[in-house]
Amino acid sequence: MNKPFVYAIGDVHGSYDLFQKLLTHYDLHLHQLVLIGDLNDRGPKTKDCLLLGMKLVKETGAIYLRGNHEEYFLQFLQEPEDWYPSYLRNGGRETMESLLHPGAAEEYSPTEIAMMIRSRYRELVDFLCNLPLYYEWENYLFVHAGVDLTKKDWRDTSPRDFLWIREPFHEHKNRTGKTIVFGHTITPLLHGDMQTTDLWIQDQKIGIDGGAVFGGSMHGVVFDPIGIIQDIEYQNNQGPWQPRD
């Protein structure tokens, strides 16, 4: 049954407490929940966030989109020795240690880490391998990073661009006929001042990643077929604003 609203939550990145706060506004009977991706890496509670994301999909029919950090994680598990250095630099340490224990990133080899994670979290890894790249609802398109707007049909976007694209999507004219809701690039960067954590709205594109894990904010945005009904924004007050994207 189609629900009258979509409730979309921006990049979580292990910020479990903010994720839980936003979920208190989730009404299973009214909202189609859409998680925009990047539940893991950088923040301290990746394990809790990933397991909750999987539970929401299996128990409430939520949509959990693949982000570039879920992709990073899976690539590391597939080829741990090759991906370990770059994954570690981009938030992977926090994920490894959340799933295993503090110090695990130094205690074991990359291959041992990957084997332990695969062994202990088989159901989760299988689940992450099957996450969708986008979700369509009414005249909206929900996607982690964006689409290739030079394509005649946006559906021909490469899997990599659905997960990783930045400026070419932000700057190119949106002629898809869809309002595109995305995360990946923090809104302080999109606003151009590295301070403003509000939603970024331009050319039927809506950026909802307020950079929570860097001391910014996390957004939960309620849509009806016409537009935004509510923007719920929780600031991360646990540490200083350290913008990075």
Automatic annotation (TrEMBL):
Biological process annotations from GO: RNA decapping
CDD domains: MPP_PPP_family
Domain Calcineurin-like phosphoesterase residues, every copy: 6-188
InterPro entries: Ap4A_hydrolase (IPR050126), Calcineurin-like_PHP (IPR004843), Metallo-depent_PP-like (IPR029052)
Organism from which the protein derives: Enterococcus mundtii
Highest taxon, organism lineage: Bacteria
Molecular-function annotations in GO: bis(5'-nucleosyl)-tetraphosphatase (symmetrical) activity; phosphatase activity
GO cellular component, one term: cytoplasm
Protein's recorded name: Serine/threonine protein phosphatase
